[in-house]
Amino acid sequence: MDKFPYKRHLKTVERISHTRASIDGREVVLFCANDYLGLANHPEVISAAQEASQSSGFGAGSAPLISGHTSYHEKLRGELAGFKSAESSLLFGSGYLANTGIIPTLAGKGDTIFSDRLNHASIIDGCRLSGAKVNIYDHNDHVHLKKLLSEKSGGRRLIVTEAVFSMDGDIAPLPEIMRLANTYGARLYIDEAHSTGVLGETGRGIFEHFKISPEHDVVQMGTLGKALGSYGAFAAGNTEYMELLINTARTFIFSTALPPSACAATLAALEILRHEPGRLARLHENAKTLREGLNKIGYRITGGDTPIIPVIAGPAEEAVRLSDALLASGFYAPAIRPPTVPEGECRVRLTVSAAHAPSEISALLEAMKKL
Q: Choosing from 42, 69, 142, 226, which is the catalytic residue?
């Protein structure tokens, strides 16, 4: 038996513009990146990163608690706290490091975690590392979550969910989850990797989307390398939680700090998001156009009102065939296979950006109609 039945191969990607790239020498339109607002190539974002590298060097040189925490890091902490309507925030090297460091800090042996069945691999690993008992509730099923919460469990309780699910594009039912957290005395940890810069009138995420204020027992995690076009991650919440993470989160304490240039790039991205609301409107208009077009053609798609639009192909070989055919037509969107998604639910995960031109979306739809 092949050790890797779903063997993957690295492709060399050279970015040409916001939405175009060269893949192993072939020019294509990208419909797979998480650069939702088209900020990764923005001149102001690049300029801010260059200036920070000139003044502070490229690498931070050490962990944050040694000498890696610069004025760029401190300023970004304050900006992110305000952006997420929180008392404080803390920076991490990546979303994976954040989830595997924060979850074991909020729950441990003798505690109980309630985790959505479709949570990201980094959340699953964070739950495993915590040593807590993990109860899995059916995807976005607040009735099942209530049933599990009503059962007797020891220690602290922590509900963990993504805000926008990375492989399905749907949104967690936050109002119902918040009510359950309050009723059953549970903390809430919400992964906003794909909702930061995407959901809400100003891109502040799922709480703004549902017009809910984050409460004291909520910790929000977000990434800087998706809609904000930079690299890294953050946690936002009350000051007590952030001080707890500074002193106990191993992936924060024992990792080199983010490059100052990444912090400066994120600060520039936040400024652009504040002053260019039309960018967020274009993102959702593009997502609506692509989603409606795929529905009209007859493809089976999942998700909600987000820029993640999975086209369900079923067997792995069908997803690979569709992805290869799209690549031959000049569009890059890789097939998603196990273990990322279950058997029989393989897909091509399309993502749109504010930077996509209407002509690029039309061309993609025309290619998919032929396929």
A: 226
Of the listed 88, 94, 153, 166, which one is catalytic? Answer: 166
CA nearest to 161, candidates 152, 171, 153, 169? 171
Catalytic residue among 194, 323, 353, 356: 194
Based on the residue annotation, tell me whether 370 is a catalytic residue of this protein. no
What are the pLDDT digits (tens) for 338-365? 888 988 999 999 999 999 999 999 999 9
Is 109 tagged catalytic?
no
Whether 194 is catalytic is: yes
- Number of structural domains (the chain) is 2
* Cα 36 from Cα 364, distance rounded (Å): 17
Range of the domain at 226: 43-274
CA distance 169 to 166: 6
Question: What is the domain-level CATH number for residue 18?
Answer: 3.90.1150.10
Q: Which residue has the tokens 């590392």?
A: 129
- 194-220 per-position pLDDT tens digit: 999 999 999 999 999 999 999 888 999
pTM for this entry: 0.95
Give dist(CA 104, CA 69) in Å, integer: 23
